[in-house]
Specification:
This protein is an alpha+beta fold. The protein has 5 helices and 2 strands, in the order H-E-E-H-H-H-H. A two-stranded antiparallel sheet has the order 1-2.
Length: 96
């Protein structure tokens, strides 16, 4: 049986999903990564379940997160973004 080729599997996922998952707020586009590096996953695990700001800052990067903060987004908006992100990428972030 041949060895599982991680690079080939990753390339296939990225081909199907792209490098980023994009969402729009008031005409401006923001991106979240479709793959989360292990280092980021460890940092995500350290966040409290209800730390939406920390979660978004970590996933988006500080500069993009600060741009998002200029808009009036509600907790429900963020929940909807994270739900759609999880459905589209298979990543269950923001789950308690």
């Amino acid at each position: 049986m041949p060895a599982f080729n991680v690079n080939a599997a990753r390339a296939q996922r990225l081909e199907a999903l792209g490098l980023t998952w994009d969402f729009e707020v008031d005409g401006e586009t923001f991106s979240l990564p479709t793959e989360i590096p292990r280092r980021s996953a460890h940092a995500l695990a350290e966040l409290k379940d209800n730390d939406l700001d920390g979660l978004l800052a970590l996933l988006m990067g500080e500069e993009s997160y600060q741009r998002l903060c200029q808009y009036e987004v509600s907790v429900q908006d963020i929940a909807a973004i994270l739900e759609a992100y999880g459905q589209d990428t298979g990543l269950g972030v923001g789950e308690g």
